[in-house]
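Researcher: Please translate sequence to structure tokens.
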Amino acid sequence: MSSGWILLGVIVVIALFVFGAYNRLVALAQRVSQAFADIDVQLKQRHDLIPNLVETVKGYATHERGTLEDVVKARNAAMSAQGPAQVSATEGQLSAALGRLIALSEAYPDLKANANFQQLQTELSDIENKIAASRRFFNNAVQEYNTGIQQLPAALFAGALGFTKKDFFDLGEQRGQLEQAPSVKF
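Model: Translation complete:
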């Protein structure tokens, strides 16, 4: 009879441990989702700012149509992207296009001196800083989540309960382009 109670006690302890580990993994997964939603909010603000920036530049740099079209195309692609991997790839392309657009101001002193352009450039810089902070928070949440599902004993049942590895918000191949300063040609 006492061995039955011991077995029942062991089963209850294991069940409580599994419930606790499951709840921890759910909390970590929710943190990842919330962190990606934060990035999404910042990217929406960035996407909303871009048409104003493009229109301001159009007035001064009418013969730079290719650069302006590249920014609009990159923005549209970024807005329709789904999931961290696709979003990070399209946002990398958008950042590169925006870098070329901002570099145009060096070639057009009147544009560079325009108060509206300066305000938009300041807002864009502020949003870029917020996006960078949100990316760091997201990647930290992903790291904690991935660590949580790979550590024992949670690793023994995490896959069976539907917890799979999440991808980091990585710029991938665009990283080299974004780390280079845009070239200005006169």
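Researcher: Any highlights?
Model: The helical segments are 2-58, 65-80, 83-107, 109-113, 115-150, 175-179.
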